[in-house]
Each structure stands twice: as C-alpha cells, then as structure tokens.
Write a structure and sequence with these properties.
The protein is an alpha+beta fold and 103 residues long. It has one domain (6-102): Arc Repressor Mutant, subunit A, CATH 1.10.10.10. The protein is built from five helices and two strands, in the order ααααββα. A hairpin with a 2-residue loop joins strand 1 and strand 2 (69-74). The longest helix has 24 residues, at 79-102. It is globular, with a radius of gyration of 15 Å.
C-alpha cells in the first residue's frame, strides 16, 4: 500500500483523492479503471463507484481505447486539477521548510 501523500495528509484520506494522486504523480500516463484499482490498492468496484465524481470534476479525459477497455489520463486543463497541483506545490514548500527547521 502506498504511503500517504501530503495532499491526503492535509485534505484527509479519500478514494477520490487516492485516484487523483496516482494520476497527478504520472500526468502523461493513461490508466484503465482496473489499473487505478491495482495501483491504489482499492477494489475495482470502489474505483467505479467514485468515478462519476472524478468525471464531474473534469479531472480526467479519455485518452484511448484498447479493445473494450477505455484508458484515461489526467485532464491537465481542468481548473480543479490546476488548483490541486498548486496546493500540492505549496504543501511541499511548507514540508521542506519544516524539515529544514527540524535539523
């Protein structure tokens, strides 16, 4: 299981955030819902249950189809995604400052 990210630590753990974290860590890669379930350690049914929220946020876009499987990637043009990247960047700065102060 993946270690909690700064965003998860700040916003709280949620299935949607775990999925978005994977997509944000590798924004140019595309994933099937099954892939996302495997990477996040969630059941595929959990990914499917939360998928409409992710689509409603315009956070993902279809990248291609592979047989019957649809692959998705992060929609980097989404305003919500842009704001999440900004928040993540600010949290990293704060975490870096905190680490320096501890030394």
């Amino acid at each position: 299981m993946k270690e909690e990210t700064l965003l998860e630590n700040f916003l709280g753990e949620s299935s949607v955030l775990k999925i978005l974290n994977v997509l944000m860590d590798h924004p140019s890669m595309d994933y099937s819902k099954k892939d996302l379930a495997e990477v996040t350690g969630m059941a595929e049914s959990t990914v499917h249950r939360h998928w409409s929220r992710i689509e409603d946020m315009d956070a993902v876009e279809e990248s291609r189809k592979y047989g019957k499987t649809t692959l998705y990637k992060l929609n980097q043009d989404s305003e919500i995604v842009k704001q999440l990247f900004k928040l993540d960047q600010e949290l990293r700065k704060k975490a870096d400052c905190f680490q320096v102060e501890k030394i």
